[in-house]
Amino acid sequence: MEQDEGARVLPLRVSDIKQYMYCPRVVYYQYVLPVERKVTHKMEHGQLEHLELDRLEKRRKLVEYGLDEGERRFQVHLHSDRLGLTGILDLLLVTPRGYFPVEFKYSTRDPALNHKYQLTAYAVLVEEQFGRPVRTGFLYMSPGKRIQPVDITENMRIHLRRMMGAIRRMVAEERVPARTRSGARCRDCEYRRFCGDVL
Ligand code: SF4
């Protein structure tokens, strides 16, 4: 990935990518118009579930990822000055067959697109930090303990770079983005009271 021209002025977090795809306004509120957000039941619940997933994963065997040997590293801090991007990855599988990022998700549904792009962002950070190509990552969906492999394609890398550019432009221009088209997302959103055009 080439260096984004905004990388030096606005470092981004991997979670920004996920949130921007969910609703661009969430990222706008965080960077342009910092407001006091309400901690929702959904957020507290999500943090507890993440701890539980972490505990369960420590019992999981590599064979369940289709891998036979290697090391598991939890809560890996990733950082790239060149990309202007940071994040903490749930799990990195370091194996003779390559490096595989794993992100835990608490959901009964299939992985959402924003989760796949979050994983793509971790994949490019792993490549930057360890100098090893990443072709595949995994989403560990719980409950159900499903492991979903995700190919990290060239198109996903290009789209990721475009999104990072769009976020930086939005922040630099202080431009309020359109709200998400999914009204269901607004129902339990911690920023809802700041979105006057949301019913
Ligand atoms: S209330 Fe809806 S439009 Fe506003 S930030 Fe939340 S999800 Fe986005």
Structure description:
- With 199 residues, the chain is an alpha/beta fold.
- 39% of the residues lie in helices and 23% in strands.
- It has helices at 14-22, 24-31, 41-57, 113-130, 154-173, 183-187, and strands at residues 12-13, 71-80, 85-95, 98-106, 136-142, 146-151.
- Helix 4 links the parallel strand 4 and strand 5 (136-142).
- Helix 1 (14-22) crosses helix 2 and helix 1 packs antiparallel against helix 4 (113-130).
- The chain is globular and about 50 Å long.
- The model has no long low-confidence stretch (mean pLDDT 85).
- The site of iron/sulfur cluster has 12 residues, from helix 2 and helix 6.
- Iron/sulfur cluster binds next to helix 2 and helix 6.
Rough outline: globular
Question: Oligomeric status of the shown chains?
Answer: single chain
The largest sheet, given as strand count, sense and whether it forms a barrel, is:
6 strands, mixed
**Average pLDDT across residues?**
85
- Give the number of DSSP strands: 6
Question: What helical percentage do the residues reach?
Answer: 25-40%
Structural class: alpha/beta
Give the SSE string: EHHHEEEHEEHH
- Helical run tally: 6
Throw out a few tags for this protein.
binds iron/sulfur cluster; 23% strand; alpha/beta; 6-stranded mixed beta sheet; 199 residues; 39% helix; 6 helices
